[in-house]
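Hi Y.,

Following your request, here is the sequence exactly as I used it, all 259 residues.
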Amino acid sequence: MVNAFSITDIGRKRQLNQDFVFTCVVPLGNLPNLFVVADGMGGHKAGDYASKCTVETIVEEVAKSTKKEPVQILDDAIQCANRLIRKKSLEDINLDGMGTTVVASTYVDGILYVANVGDSRLYVIGDKITQITRDHSLVEEMVRMGGIDRATARNHPDKNIITRAVGASSSVNVDFFEVSIDSSNIVLMCSDGLTNMIEDADIFDIIKSEGDLKQRAEKLIKTANENGGKDNIAVLLMQPEDGGTKKKIADTLTFQKKS
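Below is the corresponding structure, written out as C-alpha coordinates. Let me know if you'd prefer a different format.
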Protein backbone atom coordinates (compact mmCIF):
# COMPACT_ATOMS: atom_id res chain seq x y z
CA MET A 1 0.00 0.00 0.00
CA VAL A 2 0.96 3.60 -0.48
CA ASN A 3 -0.30 6.85 0.98
CA ALA A 4 -0.60 9.92 -1.22
CA PHE A 5 -1.92 13.47 -1.42
CA SER A 6 -2.09 15.83 -4.38
CA ILE A 7 -3.01 19.48 -4.84
CA THR A 8 -2.77 22.21 -7.48
CA ASP A 9 -2.95 25.98 -7.13
CA ILE A 10 -3.34 28.72 -9.72
CA GLY A 11 -0.55 30.79 -8.15
CA ARG A 12 -0.53 34.58 -7.88
CA LYS A 13 0.15 35.68 -11.46
CA ARG A 14 -1.81 33.43 -13.82
CA GLN A 15 -5.46 33.74 -14.86
CA LEU A 16 -5.87 30.04 -15.71
CA ASN A 17 -4.65 26.84 -14.06
CA GLN A 18 -3.02 24.59 -16.67
CA ASP A 19 -1.66 22.05 -14.17
CA PHE A 20 -3.50 18.75 -13.74
CA VAL A 21 -2.76 15.82 -11.43
CA PHE A 22 -4.07 12.31 -10.86
CA THR A 23 -3.66 10.07 -7.81
CA CYS A 24 -4.76 6.45 -7.54
CA VAL A 25 -3.53 4.34 -4.61
CA VAL A 26 -5.48 1.20 -5.56
CA PRO A 27 -4.99 -1.08 -8.60
CA LEU A 28 -5.70 0.44 -12.00
CA GLY A 29 -5.57 -2.12 -14.77
CA ASN A 30 -2.40 -4.14 -14.24
CA LEU A 31 -0.70 -1.43 -12.17
CA PRO A 32 -1.09 -1.43 -8.37
CA ASN A 33 -1.26 2.39 -8.30
CA LEU A 34 -0.70 5.40 -10.55
CA PHE A 35 0.41 9.01 -10.07
CA VAL A 36 0.53 11.67 -12.81
CA VAL A 37 1.41 15.37 -12.98
CA ALA A 38 0.99 17.42 -16.18
CA ASP A 39 1.75 21.09 -16.88
CA GLY A 40 0.03 22.33 -20.04
CA MET A 41 1.25 24.92 -22.51
CA GLY A 42 -0.49 26.83 -25.26
CA GLY A 43 -2.82 29.75 -25.80
CA HIS A 44 -6.07 30.48 -23.98
CA LYS A 45 -7.58 27.19 -22.78
CA ALA A 46 -5.21 25.12 -24.99
CA GLY A 47 -2.71 24.27 -22.24
CA ASP A 48 -5.57 23.57 -19.87
CA TYR A 49 -7.09 21.16 -22.38
CA ALA A 50 -3.74 19.51 -23.17
CA SER A 51 -2.89 18.65 -19.56
CA LYS A 52 -6.38 17.44 -18.68
CA CYS A 53 -6.81 15.40 -21.85
CA THR A 54 -3.34 13.87 -21.52
CA VAL A 55 -3.86 12.75 -17.94
CA GLU A 56 -7.33 11.37 -18.63
CA THR A 57 -6.05 9.48 -21.70
CA ILE A 58 -3.15 7.99 -19.75
CA VAL A 59 -5.55 6.83 -17.03
CA GLU A 60 -7.93 5.28 -19.58
CA GLU A 61 -5.13 3.48 -21.43
CA VAL A 62 -3.53 2.14 -18.23
CA ALA A 63 -6.91 0.88 -17.04
CA LYS A 64 -7.49 -1.20 -20.17
CA SER A 65 -3.93 -2.33 -20.92
CA THR A 66 -3.37 -6.09 -20.96
CA LYS A 67 0.41 -5.75 -20.72
CA LYS A 68 2.31 -6.63 -17.56
CA GLU A 69 5.50 -4.55 -17.58
CA PRO A 70 5.03 -1.12 -15.92
CA VAL A 71 7.37 0.64 -18.35
CA GLN A 72 5.53 -0.73 -21.39
CA ILE A 73 2.14 0.16 -19.90
CA LEU A 74 3.22 3.74 -19.18
CA ASP A 75 4.94 4.19 -22.54
CA ASP A 76 1.93 2.95 -24.49
CA ALA A 77 -0.38 5.25 -22.53
CA ILE A 78 1.79 8.34 -23.04
CA GLN A 79 2.24 7.60 -26.74
CA CYS A 80 -1.54 7.32 -27.11
CA ALA A 81 -2.02 10.64 -25.33
CA ASN A 82 0.61 12.22 -27.57
CA ARG A 83 -1.16 11.10 -30.73
CA LEU A 84 -4.50 12.41 -29.48
CA ILE A 85 -3.14 15.82 -28.41
CA ARG A 86 -1.27 16.16 -31.70
CA LYS A 87 -4.41 15.26 -33.68
CA LYS A 88 -6.57 17.75 -31.75
CA SER A 89 -4.01 20.54 -32.17
CA LEU A 90 -3.97 20.07 -35.94
CA GLU A 91 -7.77 19.94 -36.22
CA ASP A 92 -8.70 22.96 -34.10
CA ILE A 93 -7.07 26.37 -34.64
CA ASN A 94 -7.86 27.26 -31.03
CA LEU A 95 -5.71 24.35 -29.88
CA ASP A 96 -2.87 24.93 -32.34
CA GLY A 97 0.55 24.55 -30.72
CA MET A 98 -0.70 23.07 -27.48
CA GLY A 99 1.28 20.52 -25.52
CA THR A 100 2.04 19.43 -22.01
CA THR A 101 4.72 18.03 -19.79
CA VAL A 102 3.98 14.78 -18.03
CA VAL A 103 5.64 12.88 -15.22
CA ALA A 104 4.04 9.58 -14.21
CA SER A 105 4.97 6.89 -11.73
CA THR A 106 3.86 3.61 -10.23
CA TYR A 107 5.21 1.80 -7.17
CA VAL A 108 5.56 -1.96 -7.60
CA ASP A 109 7.17 -4.29 -5.04
CA GLY A 110 9.71 -1.80 -3.74
CA ILE A 111 10.51 -0.26 -7.12
CA LEU A 112 9.27 3.12 -8.34
CA TYR A 113 8.87 3.19 -12.12
CA VAL A 114 8.99 6.73 -13.51
CA ALA A 115 8.14 8.16 -16.95
CA ASN A 116 9.00 11.74 -17.89
CA VAL A 117 8.48 14.19 -20.74
CA GLY A 118 9.28 17.89 -20.25
CA ASP A 119 10.37 19.74 -17.12
CA SER A 120 7.93 18.60 -14.46
CA ARG A 121 9.93 16.66 -11.90
CA LEU A 122 10.03 13.69 -9.59
CA TYR A 123 12.19 13.73 -6.46
CA VAL A 124 12.85 11.08 -3.83
CA ILE A 125 13.38 12.44 -0.33
CA GLY A 126 15.09 10.37 2.35
CA ASP A 127 18.25 11.47 4.13
CA LYS A 128 18.68 13.88 1.23
CA ILE A 129 16.66 15.16 -1.72
CA THR A 130 17.41 13.51 -5.06
CA GLN A 131 15.99 14.63 -8.39
CA ILE A 132 15.25 11.45 -10.35
CA THR A 133 13.97 12.98 -13.59
CA ARG A 134 16.03 15.23 -15.83
CA ASP A 135 14.44 18.30 -17.38
CA HIS A 136 13.88 18.32 -21.13
CA SER A 137 14.63 22.02 -21.44
CA LEU A 138 16.93 24.33 -23.35
CA VAL A 139 18.66 25.49 -20.18
CA GLU A 140 19.19 21.92 -18.96
CA GLU A 141 20.87 21.09 -22.26
CA MET A 142 23.15 24.11 -21.77
CA VAL A 143 24.08 22.84 -18.32
CA ARG A 144 24.80 19.36 -19.64
CA MET A 145 27.04 20.80 -22.36
CA GLY A 146 28.93 22.84 -19.78
CA GLY A 147 27.77 26.18 -21.16
CA ILE A 148 26.34 27.42 -17.85
CA ASP A 149 26.34 26.27 -14.24
CA ARG A 150 23.35 25.32 -12.08
CA ALA A 151 23.24 28.64 -10.30
CA THR A 152 23.05 30.56 -13.58
CA ALA A 153 20.50 28.12 -14.98
CA ARG A 154 18.05 28.78 -12.16
CA ASN A 155 17.47 32.39 -13.27
CA HIS A 156 18.19 32.08 -16.98
CA PRO A 157 15.73 34.00 -19.20
CA ASP A 158 15.15 30.90 -21.37
CA LYS A 159 14.47 28.63 -18.39
CA ASN A 160 10.89 27.87 -19.44
CA ILE A 161 11.71 26.71 -22.98
CA ILE A 162 11.22 22.94 -23.05
CA THR A 163 12.66 20.60 -25.69
CA ARG A 164 10.12 17.80 -25.38
CA ALA A 165 6.37 17.87 -24.80
CA VAL A 166 3.40 15.58 -25.25
CA GLY A 167 1.65 16.74 -28.44
CA ALA A 168 4.59 18.63 -29.92
CA SER A 169 5.22 16.09 -32.70
CA SER A 170 3.81 12.87 -34.12
CA SER A 171 5.79 10.77 -31.63
CA VAL A 172 7.38 11.50 -28.28
CA ASN A 173 10.54 10.16 -26.67
CA VAL A 174 9.81 9.25 -23.05
CA ASP A 175 12.55 8.94 -20.43
CA PHE A 176 12.20 6.11 -17.91
CA PHE A 177 13.79 5.64 -14.50
CA GLU A 178 13.66 2.89 -11.88
CA VAL A 179 14.52 3.54 -8.23
CA SER A 180 14.27 1.44 -5.09
CA ILE A 181 12.28 3.12 -2.31
CA ASP A 182 10.62 2.14 0.96
CA SER A 183 8.57 3.69 3.77
CA SER A 184 11.51 5.88 4.80
CA ASN A 185 11.18 7.78 1.51
CA ILE A 186 8.69 10.38 0.31
CA VAL A 187 8.20 10.90 -3.41
CA LEU A 188 7.52 14.42 -4.68
CA MET A 189 6.10 14.98 -8.16
CA CYS A 190 5.60 18.60 -9.17
CA SER A 191 5.37 21.20 -11.91
CA ASP A 192 7.99 23.92 -12.38
CA GLY A 193 5.67 26.34 -10.63
CA LEU A 194 7.03 24.79 -7.44
CA THR A 195 10.69 24.28 -8.33
CA ASN A 196 11.10 27.74 -9.86
CA MET A 197 9.87 29.29 -6.61
CA ILE A 198 11.55 27.09 -3.98
CA GLU A 199 15.16 25.86 -3.81
CA ASP A 200 15.64 22.11 -3.46
CA ALA A 201 17.13 22.55 0.03
CA ASP A 202 14.01 24.36 1.19
CA ILE A 203 11.77 21.72 -0.41
CA PHE A 204 13.71 19.12 1.57
CA ASP A 205 13.24 21.01 4.83
CA ILE A 206 9.48 21.34 4.28
CA ILE A 207 9.01 17.68 3.41
CA LYS A 208 11.05 16.61 6.44
CA SER A 209 9.01 18.87 8.74
CA GLU A 210 6.22 17.66 11.01
CA GLY A 211 2.74 16.95 9.69
CA ASP A 212 1.04 14.51 7.35
CA LEU A 213 1.42 14.53 3.57
CA LYS A 214 -1.50 16.93 3.16
CA GLN A 215 -0.01 19.47 5.57
CA ARG A 216 3.40 19.31 3.94
CA ALA A 217 1.98 19.61 0.43
CA GLU A 218 -0.05 22.63 1.45
CA LYS A 219 3.04 24.17 3.02
CA LEU A 220 4.91 23.74 -0.26
CA ILE A 221 2.10 25.53 -2.11
CA LYS A 222 2.00 28.31 0.48
CA THR A 223 5.77 28.84 0.32
CA ALA A 224 5.81 28.91 -3.50
CA ASN A 225 3.12 31.60 -3.43
CA GLU A 226 4.92 33.58 -0.75
CA ASN A 227 8.04 33.49 -2.93
CA GLY A 228 6.16 35.01 -5.87
CA GLY A 229 3.73 32.39 -7.16
CA LYS A 230 4.64 33.23 -10.76
CA ASP A 231 3.09 30.09 -12.23
CA ASN A 232 0.53 27.39 -11.51
CA ILE A 233 1.75 24.97 -8.85
CA ALA A 234 1.18 21.21 -8.76
CA VAL A 235 2.34 19.04 -5.87
CA LEU A 236 1.87 15.29 -5.43
CA LEU A 237 3.39 13.52 -2.42
CA MET A 238 3.50 9.75 -2.13
CA GLN A 239 4.93 7.47 0.56
CA PRO A 240 5.02 3.67 0.70
CA GLU A 241 3.57 2.23 3.88
CA ASP A 242 5.19 -0.41 6.05
CA GLY A 243 4.02 -3.89 5.18
CA GLY A 244 2.22 -4.34 8.47
CA THR A 245 0.62 -0.91 8.49
CA LYS A 246 -2.90 -0.50 7.22
CA LYS A 247 -4.26 3.01 7.07
CA LYS A 248 -7.70 4.11 6.00
CA ILE A 249 -7.45 6.09 2.79
CA ALA A 250 -10.46 8.29 2.20
CA ASP A 251 -9.80 9.19 -1.43
CA THR A 252 -8.31 6.35 -3.44
CA LEU A 253 -8.91 7.90 -6.84
CA THR A 254 -8.44 11.62 -7.37
CA PHE A 255 -8.31 13.94 -10.34
CA GLN A 256 -7.19 17.34 -9.11
CA LYS A 257 -7.30 20.81 -10.58
CA LYS A 258 -8.08 23.91 -8.60
CA SER A 259 -9.05 27.10 -10.42
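The radius of gyration is 17 Å.

Thanks again,
Q.
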